[in-house]
Amino acid sequence: MEHSPILQAFKYVGVPVFTIASDGSVSHSNTAADNLFGYTNDSMTGQKISHLLPVESVAELHSFIHPPAIDANIRMVMAKSKDGSPLPLAVYLTSWTDDKGLQHAVIVRDISEEMKLQKVTTNELKRANTAILAAKIGVFEHFPKENRTVVSQSWRHLIGLADDDTADVQEEWRSRVHPDDLGPADKIIQVCLDGDTDIAKLEYRFRSKDDTHWFWLCAEISVSQRDEEGRITSVIGVVKDVTERRKTEDSLRLNTEYFRSAFENTSIGHAIIALDGRWLRVNNAFCELIGFPREELVKTNLRDLTHPDDLEDSCKHIALLTAGEIETYSRERRYIRANGQTLWGKLTVSLVRDENGVPDHIIVQLMDITEQRQLAQMKGEFVATISHELRTPLTSVIGSLALLTVMDDEAFSDKAKRLLHVAQQNGKRLNVLIDDILDFEKFSAKQVTFNLSSENIAELVEDTLFTNSEFANKFGVRFELKCDDASLHGSVDVKRFQQVMANLLSNAAKFAHDDTAIIAEVKDVAGCIEIAITNKGDGIPNEFRDRIFIPFAQAAESDNRNRGGTGLGLTITKQIVEQTGGQIGYESMPDGMTTFWFTVPYAEPAEVIVLSA
């Protein structure tokens, strides 16, 4: 590294340049710097900055740079040479940070012979440009007496001027500054010349050389030289392209404004909560939901407002969240409003981490579902009440009709017998409807208890085919069993399994072509047992496929057969299958085969006890 081409070039640059390491010592110096300060044979390297410049530490040196700037021009510094003699210098200081810490590059100019050196200013700037070219910083120097400006090569590159372009740089610059920014840009040098300040800074828009877009430049101007009477003879400036930074700032500002507007103006309650439960920020909707004014709400925390019956579950989830075991969760919870009433809320909670991945705060979203909960409860109570009120008299009616149809001592006319039969069938259909509605309510509320046991699946399927043969006869089809392994045992609730099979078999029979076979196949698949019911028919319409398991959904009739049904059968079937540990699905081809399948978990065969004689 010590003999790299970069360091070799740096060594022989004619401008006195040296770099200061983070410990305050000279890490590199070129020959010009060595000679200026009176050091030979690289003996300047390793010297403390306090031996060269009137500063005691790197921190004091860095204090000349005022953020967000990364460099500074220091008009006059009384340095000292190796023999202790004073050495007046103009200093250009820049800084950067790498894996070794804070670094500084110092370019110095001996101003004791300033009047003699003015003739070579252009060459000095050109050589200085080599040191700052990599930083893409344009440098210029303006001489007010002659109204003359000298620019560095990097300045020309920054605004898109070629090295051999003969355009007047001042006219070129003025022609491309945005009209709205030209006035302030013109004044930035003048405020220094007027003595209002020694340093000025401005960001302005600048048109590209090809006239296709605008970009942003940041110019920093400082007084460089004065004559014996204190009049300014030179100002020096640096220019940087800050377009990307401005875009980032604009994007951040827009995102911040969008978040603020979305947070404050939504009708959904939003809150930001510290990990210890303190409110960091709440919107108006949240305050209105809870019923507390903002100034009163911040005196509480979410735990204080949670209904006692939901507090344990709430604390458990918050603990999982803050421990990083989950990132988000959603629950229905009850909260106590300011007036003592209970609020049912749909709560969504998400954890936000800082840039190091450490949990920082929690975002809460709360929607009022009190009315929906009340309506759901009222609906459930109404359905249960009506269904039970209908079931008792309906059972009596169906029983009476059945008794009448078997009475031999009463001579009914054929018309009366037909009416009795119709009434009995309609009573049975109404009874099925009531059962389906009650089942649907229970399954939706997950209030059904399953009695699972190990059963031979092939035997169960065979039993259900026999039990439901009435459906096959009614619609002119036949049921057939296909099973390669009759020993398969699954974990099922026998009654509910038969209900699933009845629903699928009746559906298959309703939509099968006349005089076709409906195949019930039992097979061993990866990790479970699959039961598939296949019929040949018109297939499931494309427009109905997304709704097939939705409550009360029924495909449009495609023929004149009265298929009947409540539209709840497949919904109930899906709930039974999934709540007993299985899955359900279907495949259907237009005017072809349709298969509904479901799975049951494996189970060991029940132990058989053989009693000896």
From TrEMBL:
Q: Does the keyword Kinase apply?
A: yes
Q: Which PANTHER family match?
A: PAC DOMAIN-CONTAINING PROTEIN, PHYTOCHROME-LIKE PROTEIN CPH1
Q: What EC number(s) is this enzyme filed under?
A: 2.7.13.3
Q: Which UniProt keywords apply?
A: Kinase, Phosphoprotein, Transferase, Two-component regulatory system
The segment(s) forming the PAS domain are: 2-67, 255-312
Q: Could you tell me which residue ranges the PAC domain spans?
A: 200-254, 329-381
| Record-annotated Histidine kinase domain positions | 385-604
Q: Which GO terms describe its molecular function?
A: phosphorelay sensor kinase activity
Descriptive protein name: histidine kinase
Gene3D superfamilies documented for this protein: 1.10.287.130, Histidine kinase-like ATPase, C-terminal domain, PAS domain
Coiled-coil region: none
Asked whether the keyword Transmembrane helix is assigned, the reply is no
| Catalysed reaction equations from the record | ATP + protein L-histidine = ADP + protein N-phospho-L-histidine
